[in-house]
Queue: 3 jobs
Job 1
Amino acid sequence: MDRAGEELVRFEETLANDLADDLVQLLGKFVAPAEKVAAKTTVVGKNAWLIEGSFVRVNQGSRLLRASVGLGVGGTKQETRASVFLIQPGKKPRLVATIETTGGSNAQPGAILSGPVLLIPRVIFISTTSGLSADTRRTARMITATLSEKLAKSNASLPERTLIPKRLGSLPTNSPP
């Protein structure tokens, strides 16, 4: 990070709040009504899911390098871990899922490789569609999609279509069939 002290603290708080806001909005649309609660809040008297999470890794990369060179140069990286707890009156919270996400800015070509005609439009496009804000929105989508898929498999009624999360592909094996 290119920040320190109070500036870093504000950045971390903003990133966490943005993820929570995106998550509440998507969960409300695709899973069930959701609300953001302050850290260390005790949820009582309800049947609910409580989602707690942390950023495992955040690398902001370089917007200038992403926009000009691209192809992964200057790329961002964001990894998160979310724990989903079932909260029921009179019972201890029970862990029902752990969701880990990883991703970053795409390895799309930058403006230099797009030619002179597309230089300015490409810089603007990449600057506004990549970076940690886009990574945060993607993370909220993946957590929501994982919960949506889990509920759909248990035949739960969902407010919208079932979302399916992207998953890392499996590696090919060299073993004979």
Job 2
Amino acid sequence: MISIVGIGTGGSAVAEHFRGIGNYEAYCLNRKVKRNTKTNFQLPEWKTPEEYEQNIPDLTHFFESIRDRVQVFMVGSSMSSNYVLGILQQIQDKEIELFYIKPDTEMLTGTPRLMENVVFGVLQEYARSGLFKSVTLISNSHLESVLGEVPIKNYYETLNGSIFSTIHYLNYFEFTEPEIGQVAYPAEINRIRTIAILDVETLQEKWFFDLDMPRELCYYICINDDRLNAEGGLHKKLVDMLKEKPKNAFRKISYAIYGTEHPDFGFCVAHTNVVQEQKTLDSLS
């Protein structure tokens, strides 16, 4: 069982997708909660980041049944991000995997931009120090590019649904024996990561975040069962493509191939120990 925690409106919107699915229990903490329940908690609103940090709610009772493994979702620019460290300190004895959803910083101004700049760096440093098992960086603008034409009417629902399905599959792979291959466990130091969707025919990655200096890349390749049974030479074809990927003593590659009743699909998870810096138009020019 994995406990899912959504902090803030955006983080809770992702967490909601896990509700009703076996092996998960979802906790949502945000300002829109009308009444506190066993799995919903209303986070008070304040005017300044300092007021949020000075008024961290006591969640001892709320989290009394939380599992040992916790996956936390949050959006970097939301005012509720000022609660994150105070909330996570209350479950620091658990194995925490943090999923940081990064907004389009080019469109942020004022306090939200300043907050995002600070929170983005601080949470990565906390992951490097070992407070979290990992921090996974997801850029909304990158994800939109990966998905293609996203309608405005269902913009966030589409992005949130994609994040949910990706993480759900990666969780599934952890407890499923592959047909062949084995994804390596990343080194303890490589706690900062991101994810890509794969084009299985070419093994080209479409990244959710532009990660600097990836140290380990883990490929999860799902092939339709009929193709697995009928296509000879498929394993060699896939391995040959992986061998063409850039690699050296500091950049390692592992893979696993799974059967599926669905059309072919796949993911790649890149891990690094390098704290990612903010990228702006000025810094890229």
Job 3
Amino acid sequence: MGGDNGPHIIFPAALKALHQTPHLHIIFCGPLTVMAQWLNQQLPNIQSRITLSDCPENVAMDEAPTHALRHKKNSSMRRVLDLVDKNEADACVSGGNTGALLCMAYYVLKTLPGIDRPALITLVPTINNGKVYFLDLGANINCDSEVLFQYAVMGSVLAEQISHIKHPRVALLNVGAEEIKGNDQVKQTARLLTDSQNINYIGYVEGNDIFSQKADVIVTGGFAGNIALKSWEGLVNFAIQEVKKASQNNLWSKIVAKIAMPLFRGIYLRMKPDQYNGASLIGLRGIVVKSHGNASSEAFLYAIREAIQQVEMQVPDKIKDKIEAVLMERHK
């Protein structure tokens, strides 16, 4: 029921996912009347792979996280997390209130041993058809060096397991590439990463390096990470609107736009945020994927695919193993 459009985008995305992934089973959590009406319209082979879980409560998009945690125990958001906690579901996907999801997930699932706080991570496009894992996107506004170090470990595991990158290059986002740049928090994190044999740390990168393919994983605190992510999304939308406006100026611009449209379309499809929808809340004892609240049906499908990938690669177990190896290394 979460997000700006709720079931209107979630149902079509789920139906595509079921058609594309024969072994997938989906549990819908929400008002039974809404879900049953949609389910009755589907073919029997699809109906057999769907379970409905009636949830009379709903977390509003502007609801305070602590209020949702205390008073919305029968909401669809709480139910999906409870299902993962009880091993009745392998992963959950939500497009609802981000703050409430973070708060509930932290309370219900708890963090893995050795992890202080979970992080939101997503893929961002880079030059030469590359991609980089970027975290934290806003799960934690204030992060000390130990938390940022843990983010680096978790991001490295995700790059290894999901993107199959051996020894992923891990970088810290900073105000400059020189060692003397940055605050004490960033410098201390750099020292921790440099001393670790389990992380392929390559140093600092600046904001204009995010899309440069210099690193496979870029680590920062949630405050800077969220601003950087929203700036990218806003820039892409701005560029699209400017191209549309310029192409309508006169007859000549319309002709040029018509010729150049395949090029523009290719660039747009590469950069549009929809296909990178599905930020993973990693570091928990379960798989939680957060979709944008204003995601389209196509974008929500990407979030479902991300959850499937993490289940198949057993990402929480891999993070747990990596963290244990790092802790053993540091205590030698």
